[in-house]
């Protein structure tokens, strides 16, 4: 099963993923049209800020089992069998916010839903762009991310690539430096120097 995998070390904080997500969930499906819609579409992915000021793309992980689904008494959250995505049934959402309180990643928001015929504030969470995927497209946030911070692939394939990447960056000695890649000790020294600048270390 394919998932959206976040690589926070590559995020540059451009927020193109947020913009693409909002447009993908708009009525017009275009940026120009979404700007003038009476009920503004909202993104399902959120760029947070880490302890050192670094950007972090935060989105629903579609946990299984999902704490938000267990907390939803009306049964508004359900699992789509084909993609494994955790989706919301807008007709059952009563805005109790139990799902948001149970979510360990804090990614559920409450907005007026622009795709509903009548005005209704609903829980908003990532739906893995199921409509786009039915047409053979990748999620909008992944397509928009040019920095490679978001990947859409089989989980084990992404993790295997990550293992190789970590192995290369952790190489010791002049061989890694000669290849233009910082060795592990260089990375640690730079990290410590950064902490000293911030007053976190002596």
- The poorly predicted ranges are none
* Apparent shape: globular
Element string (H = helix, E = strand) = EHHEEHEEHEEHHEHHH
Distance between the termini: 46 Å
CATH topology of the largest domain: Alpha-Beta Plaits
- Assembly category: single chain
> Strand percentage, roughly?
15-25%
Give the overall average pLDDT: 85
Helix fraction by DSSP (H/I, runs of at least 4): 25-40%
- Determine the number of helices (DSSP H or I, runs of at least 4 residues): 9
Tally the beta strands: 8
> How many individual domains?
2
Order of strands in the sheet with most strands: 1-8
Please describe the biggest sheet, giving its number of strands, its sense, and whether it closes into a barrel. Answer: 2 strands, antiparallel
**Which structural class is indicated by helix and strand composition?**
alpha+beta
- Do you know the CATH architecture of the largest domain? 2-Layer Sandwich
CATH class division of the largest domain = Alpha Beta
Query: Rg to the nearest angstrom?
Result: 20 Å
